[in-house]
Amino acid sequence: MAKKLKTKTEEIRKLSEADLAKELEDVHRRLFSLRLQKETRQLPNHREPPKVKRLIARIKTIQRDMPMLLIT
C-alpha cells in the first residue's frame, strides 16, 4: 500500500529542507503513478490528480518561503 502523503500545511511547514525535497519527490512519483493509471483506465478516483498537483504547488511554495521562515 502507498505511503500516506502529508497534506496539511502545518505538517509540511514542520519539515526540514531535506524532508521537503524528499516529500516533493514522493508526490511527483504519486502524480506519475496517477497519470499512468488514468491512461490505462485504472484510476479509481478522478479527483485525485488535481489534489496532488495542488499539493506539489503547496510544497514548492513552502520551499520558496523557507529562507523567510528561518529569518523570522
Can you characterise this structure?
By secondary structure, the protein is mainly alpha-helical. It has 3 helices and no strands. The protein has helices at residues 9-13, 17-39, 48-71. The longest helix is centred in the C-terminal third of the chain and has 24 residues, at 48-71.
Strand content: under 5%
> Structural class of the secondary elements?
mainly alpha
Fraction of residues in H or I helices = over 70%
Mean pLDDT level: 88
Computed over alpha carbons, the radius of gyration is: 14 Å
Overall number of domains: 1
Q: How would you sum up the major sheet?
A: none
Per DSSP, the total helix count is: 3
Q: SSE order in H/E notation?
A: HHH
How do you describe this structure in short?
With 72 residues, the chain is mainly α. The protein has three helices and no strands. The longest helix has 24 residues, at 48-71.
Task: Tell me the layout of helices and strands.
Elements: H1 9-13, H2 17-39, H3 48-71
Helix pairs in contact: 2-3
Key terms for this structure?
72 residues; mainly alpha; elongated
